[in-house]
Hints:
By secondary structure, this protein is an alpha/beta fold. It has a single domain (5-244), classed as TIM Barrel (Alpha-Beta Barrel), CATH 3.20.20.70. It is built from ten helices and twelve strands. The protein has helices at residues 32-42, 63-72, 86-95, 104-108, 111-120, 153-163, 184-191, 207-215, 226-229, 235-244, and strands at residues 5-13, 16-21, 24-31, 47-51, 77-80, 99-102, 125-133, 138-142, 147-152, 167-172, 198-201, 221-224. Strands 1-4-5-6-7-10-11-12 form an eight-stranded parallel beta barrel, surrounded by six helices. Strand 1 (5-13) and strand 2 (16-21) form a beta hairpin. Helix 1 (32-42) packs parallel to helix 2 (63-72). It is globular, with a radius of gyration of 16 Å.
Amino acid sequence: MLTKRIIPCLDIKDGRTVKGVNFVELRDAGDAVEQGAIYAEQGADELVFLDITATVENRKTLVELVRNVARQINIPFTVGGGISSVQDVSDLLNAGADKISINSSAVRRPGLIDELALQFGSQCVVVAIDTKDYGNRNMVHTHGGRTPTEIVTEAWAYECQERGAGEILLTSMDHDGTKAGFANELTSKISTKLHIPVIASGGAGTMGHFYEVFTDGAADAALAASIFHFKEIPIPSLKKYLDAQGISVRIEI
């Protein structure tokens, strides 16, 4: 059985970690490099760093920040925000990132997924999907959740896989920051249709929510931010809980 991954997410703005609710009302949550190092020590399986205003401000992800993070941690980490070309990805991988995450640029030009998978391999291409429920359909949003599209989430996830994405990072905007639980129904619908891993994001508030997203949601990994940043749930305690519940996780002896 493949182990389920626990992934802290650090949303970066002006070099600092921030966290909000439903993608708004951001508050400072600490130094990104220091936090990344702490999570690595605590047993996080991977890290995700998202420069959340890079696309909106029409600039590139901070390469120097990536370089500093790479010096401090010994686990895989993914970087996203403002990535729109093969050269952008090359710069980030050379700075020490293990994977990159694209969202708005992939929606704008889906062929970018094909190009990156061909150039660097699917294993380092993560497509992030920010989605919102409109009652009868879940729709993709871009530019940090600010811009709605007419793309149906499930269909887009499948297209990303077919174009060469190695993973899907699925964030429910409705659940983001609410601590009311992940979007398990949607996560399961996508995860069971795809053969690539799906990372669930948005809504973690209790240890039980992680158990539910791994069982009911059929997620391969679960990503969370504020509960880790503000020390509400320690990663070692979470992994011990999941292990006791029969969920296969990596626990360092």
